[in-house]
Automatic annotation (TrEMBL):
Gene3D superfamilies (alphabetical): Ribonuclease Inhibitor
InterPro entries listed in its UniProt record: Leu-rich_rpt, Leu-rich_rpt_typical-subtyp, LRR_dom_sf, SLRP
Organism this protein belongs to: Lynx canadensis (Canada lynx)
Protein's gene: PODNL1
Superkingdom as given in the UniProt entry: Eukaryota
This protein's UniProt keywords: Leucine-rich repeat, Repeat
Protein name listed in UniProt: Podocan like 1
Length: 486
């Protein structure tokens, strides 16, 4: 059959012009358009802004390309855009016209992270809800970059070069709905004033902050999380009112600063206080009385010595769950700890002694870590662990023990004794540990003949037994491996 003559197609295929299918949508070359309002040009190594983008587009992704500029004429015609993703390009401030976004009156989400902006756009649309300008080289923002945005909720400016001079005092004026603000990894020297009172999460870590000006956080009464770690804060940079107005604060990270004492005026809502890697020499009970709701207190790598944590200093913290004291200079387990404490983490200190009553005040302990201290068997009382009926994990690795401690709780699941000086293993100290699942004995002075007969008989639940390492040749052939050895 011959093809129809030119001009006769409709006669040959009468339904061709009457199709109910819509005409194919215009879509930029190499991009995909899965919906009428979506254009995805992600990861195409584009160097030029694509043309032929439909005016109906509401979502445009141009991330992971090599764009250096945004042409105003092309962008201004996309007045229906709600989401614009320009993440990971080469866009500079010179390639971004001041009026670039003025026609995008419905824009809600803009992502310009990982580009080469040296200043923020002078104007972003009033309709904006989320703005991500992280990982640029921004040194300055302007009053209308983020100001006068009543719907704005999240602003990400981390990993830039912002100093306090580049952050105007009215930067968030008229934007009373911002709940997340990230200014971490910049060059701020003090906590910026006039932050949105609506904030719930504030990231200021990895700056040069040495001071929180008086009243700087007095309006942020909704703040729940405050991150100030890796700064240069000293005691003189804070005062008793710095945190006292934050009546919803739950998480405060002040680690990696230069504090010599626990800050005053902590709110009662605080649940997590991170003070690790400071220069704290002593903890005063008076400083913690206001923080009665504290659940996690982290004081690792400070300068707490023999008198750094006096008896009863933490007693106001009745609900404390976890206490981290790793890497200090304590010579004994602190006395009169909160009775409900569940985890005590005390490795890499100078603890030499465990008395019969040292742990009696914390019967609810489930985890006790005393690894890498200076414990010797002669100074560990045979009843030291007996009050800890809830104990599930005991870490005594890296001490100077020559024998297993007595009176171990029957509910123990994990017992770590590697890197001690154990010379014998008898069944008596392990009797009753029928729930023990993991026992670590590596790097001791045990030989096969030093392990008494029946030692493993009581350990019916044992799943992991770290092999002891012999320092001398065994006196008898090694016994065949048991099903629980690894």
């Amino acid at each position: 059959m011959r093809p129809p003559a030119p001009g006769m197609e409709d006669a040959a295929f009468p339904h061709l012009g009457e199709s109910s299918q819509p005409p194919p949508r215009a879509c930029p070359q190499r991009c995909s358009c899965p919906r009428a309002d979506t254009v995805d040009c992600n990861g195409l190594d584009l160097q030029v802004f694509p043309d032929n983008i439909t005016r109906a587009a509401q979502r445009l992704s141009l991330q992971n390309n090599q764009l250096q500029e945004l042409p105003y004429n092309e962008l201004s015609r996309l007045s229906s855009l709600r989401t614009l993703n320009l993440h990971n390009n080469l866009i500079s401030s010179e390639g971004l016209p001041d009026e670039a976004f003025e026609s995008l009156t419905q824009l809600q989400h803009i992502y310009v992270a990982h580009n080469k902006l040296s200043v923020a756009p002078q104007f972003l649309p009033r309709s904006l809800r989320v703005a991500d300008l992280a990982a640029n080289q921004v040194t300055e923002i302007f009053p209308l970059t983020f100001g006068e945005k009543p719907a704005l909720r999240s602003v990400y400016l981390h990993n830039n070069q912002l100093s306090n001079a580049g952050l105007p005092p009215d930067a968030f004026h008229g934007s009373e709905a911002v709940v997340i603000l990230s200014l971490s990894s910049n060059r701020l020297s003090y906590l910026p004033p006039s932050l949105p009172p609506s904030l719930e999460r504030l990231h200021l870590q990895n700056n040069l902050i040495s001071k929180v000006p008086r009243g700087a956080l007095s309006r942020q009464t909704h703040l729940r999380e405050l991150y100030l770690q890796h700064n240069q804060l000293t005691d003189s940079g804070l005062d008793a009112t710095t945190f006292s107005k934050l009546r919803h604060l739950e998480y405060l990270d002040l680690s990696h600063n230069r504090l010599a004492s626990v800050p005053a005026g902590l709110p009662r809502t605080l649940a997590v206080l991170h003070l690790g890697r400071n220069r704290i020499r002593g903890v005063e009970a008076a400083r913690l009385r206001g923080a009665r709701g504290l659940r996690y207190l982290l004081l690792q790598h400070n300068q707490l010595g023999a008198t750094g944590l006096p008896a009863g200093a933490l007693r106001p913290l009745r609900g404390l769950h976890t206490l981290h004291l790793y890497g200090n200079g304590l010579d004994r387990v602190p006395l009169a700890l909160p009775r409900r404490l569940r985890a005590l983490v005390l490795p890499h200190n100078h603890v030499t002694t465990l008395g019969a009553r040292d742990l009696a005040g914390t019967p609810g302990l489930a985890e006790l870590n005393l690894a890498y201290n200076r414990l010797v068997s002669a100074r560990v009382h045979r009843r030291a662990f007996r009050p800890l009926r809830a104990l599930r994990s005991l870490d005594l690795a890296g001490n100077l023990l020559t024998r297993l401690p007595g009176g171990l709780p029957g509910g123990l699941h994990t017992l770590r004794l590697q890197r001690n000086q154990l010379r014998a293993l008898e069944p008596e100290p392990l009797a009753g540990l029928d729930q023990l699942r993991e026992l670590s004995l590596a790097h001791n002075r045990l030989r096969v003949g030093d392990i008494g007969p029946g030692t493993w008989h009581e350990l019916q639940a044992l799943q992991v037994r770290r092999r002891p390492v012999s320092h001398t040749a065994p006196t008898a052939p090694p016994s065949p491996p048991t099903p629980c050895s690894v």
